[in-house]
Amino acid sequence: MYRDISDRKQLEAELQEREKRFRLLVTYAPVGIFQTDSQGHCLFVNPQWMELTGLSMAEALGTGWANAIHPSDRELVFTEWSKNSTTERQFSMEYRFRTPTGKINWVFSMAIAIRDEAGAIVGYFGTVTDITARKQAEQRLRESEERLQLALESVEEGLWDWNIRTGEVYRSPRWATILSYSPDELENNIYLRDTLVHPEDKRHMIELLEAHFQNQTPYFEMELRMLTKSGEWKWILDRGQIVERDERGQPLRMVGTHKDITDRKCSEETLRKRYQQILLLKEIVEAIRQSLDLQKFFRQPQSESVGP
After folding, report:
1. Does the pLDDT of residue 177 top 90, yes or no?
2. Which pLDDT band, with edges at 50, 70 and 90, does 144 fall under?
3. Which of 60, 154, 219, 263 could form a disulfide with 241 if both were Cys (CB 3.0 to 4.6 A apart)?
4. 234 or 283, which is more confident?
5. Which CATH architecture has domain 139-260?
6. Does domain 25-130 have CATH number 3.30.450.20?
7. For residues 30 and 276, what is the distance between their CA atoms, to the nearest angstrom?
């Protein structure tokens, strides 16, 4: 009897210690924690959850927790929750909380079902992780990319982004349309370059790229010819720069632009031909002048043309 009481007290002490550790974990966890019954009625939320939502424990209980979800996301969250509860899948999604003061917090939420001994769902236990900083960074990146795209479109330039390690290349829609392609007609790898660049320009292009890879030049720049979808050659001003290197200095990523300069090159060629024509005309005029001078010389009386 004494041993049974001693064992029971030891188990009770261990249980109390576990509960204490659990309460500390829940209280000081860096993520929001919640518990609901099988119908989704809130039974418990921790301080971090309350901080993210701006609701108190009393306000969150029952169905009150739903008031924390951004109105634009509420229906989607309910639909996803219902879908996962009926299919017994783990609930996970990103959505927004809106606090009573109007502050928006993005969260990633996960929840798992709690089952009894018979396997029936008796509730849910879940977490919400604050991802606001990540979402804001993604938004700033999107806005930056949109501004860059608008700037490139205003000067009619295409953008390319080359992952040198994998060989993958992102080419903007404008890059493709310059060569009369639609974006989905072009492969997103560096090997596409070999099929489009004029054979006479490839060697020099590789030399310039290699020089930039070796840090011998601050950037890559070259005027080259590229094949359009119709089979014509267009002159392209291709410019780029290494934007990321590994710890050994090897290039990892290169970003650049692609501009159609065919009209300019045609104008330059026209001017070059005109200049050559002018030079030729000057030579002809000079030859005629010299011929006329000789004729004049030979037509002069001998006394005038021969010295003393």
Report:
1. yes
2. confident
3. 219
4. 234
5. 2-Layer Sandwich (3.30)
6. yes
7. 76
